């Protein structure tokens, strides 16, 4: 086991190269299952989650080569369409293989993901969508068994614009017979990139980037090469760090993916400059307390809510941070309070009363973004903070301690005995 040890309260200054987006590359890796050939993916972040997905693809029969942020997936043979509990339990995004496997193999057995630190997280939209495309779905021994000789296009309307369900149904529908229409589809940049990737492979998709996507099924797809978009959540995390602690330039971003975060940070008092694909953030005279409510894209991402609360914990005044996507996603709050923050949770809102300073302590990661919020809080706190259970942070942030250390943070990874 490892932990991060942070000596806080040091100014940050310098540049950070942003990695490829975890949430974009995972569905792209699953989409490689749709084609009998070699998919090449560039700018793949070396994360626990990308390695887990690579392992899963290999179990399904594909060959995967991953080095220097480049991945090659040879899916000539996909002959074992089974995603076992151990992998799906480790990473819910494993569920992304369901749609492509049914489309390619006519059958898939994928373990049903359980709940997680943020509450129940059901997959009913994925399953109802596949049923609409003609798949027969059964639950046996905790596994979803989905079968369809040939999927057939249909109209699917999601009650909520789910990112995962939109991706799964897209990947199933591209090889279905006839037209599929997804209403109330997700339009997150990661879904847009998945659509564009599928189109480059020969899929016929209309309405990309809107809430109504139409897919005209094709018989086969061609292998392609793609570069993953920059990780907007990593960008947002570093922007928040800069707004608290100094002046940071984030290189190779797509600023339009962060419009709302940038607006909110300006309200906080930070100075933000955009130069093509680079964003520079500088701490203002004081940190104003700013309320926010998470929303689907282009709204403020739920994946940045925990980091925002860390910033608000040292703001002047009180703020209310509401999560409309995951109502229970506040496991970072008791840990932030261990550092001296003054936060209470009521329903799906956190009431954050800004304190003068945070004081270092031992804290524990509970999920990927909660861990990032604890690292930020540790960097802001006086004294030493130990962030434990950092396997979560390694799922979603590539070399986070090296990136912060290069900005002048005093942060190191330390091995500990169990
Ligand atoms: C993805 C992201 C995750 C992010 C989330 C919301 C990946 C790998 N993960 O997760 O980091 O926090 O989007 O932006 O990209 N829902 C249902 N039934 C379903 C599916 C979803 O009720 O079948 C609900 C969820 O409980 C949640 C909401 O819909 O309240 C949004 O979830 P969804 O967009 O599906 O999130 P994920 O794709 O799991």
Description:
- With 418 residues, this protein is α/β, with parallel strands linked by helices.
- It folds into two domains: 2-19 and 230-415, UDP-n-acetylglucosamine1-carboxyvinyl-transferase, Chain (Alpha-beta prism), CATH 3.65.10; 22-227, Enolpyruvate transferase domain (UDP-n-acetylglucosamine1-carboxyvinyl-transferase, Chain, Alpha-beta prism), CATH 3.65.10.10.
- The chain is built from 14 helices and 24 strands.
- The strands form six sheets. A four-stranded mixed β-sheet has the order 22-23-1-24, covered by helices on one side.
- The longest helix is centred in the middle third of the chain and has 14 residues, at 232-245.
- The chain starts with a strand and ends with a strand.
- The structure holds uridine-diphosphate-N-acetylglucosamine.
In summary, what is this structure?
The protein is α/β, with parallel strands linked by helices. The chain contains 14 helices and 24 strands.
Fold blueprint:
Elements: E1 2-7, E2 12-17, H1 22-31, E3 38-42, H2 48-60, E4 63-67, E5 70-74, E6 82-83, H3 85-90, H4 98-105, E7 107-111, H5 124-132, E8 136-140, E9 143-147, E10 155-157, H6 163-173, E11 179-183, H7 189-200, E12 204-206, E13 212-216, E14 225-227, H8 232-245, E15 246-251, H9 259-268, E16 271-275, E17 278-282, E18 292-293, H10 305-312, E19 318-322, H11 332-338, E20 342-346, E21 349-353, E22 362-364, H12 368-380, E23 384-388, H13 391-396, H14 400-406, E24 410-415
Helix pairs in contact: 1-2, 1-7, 4-6, 5-6, 6-7, 8-9, 8-12, 10-12
Uridine-diphosphate-N-acetylglucosamine is lined by residues 23, 26, 92-93, 121-126, 160, 162-165, 190, 302-303, 325-326.
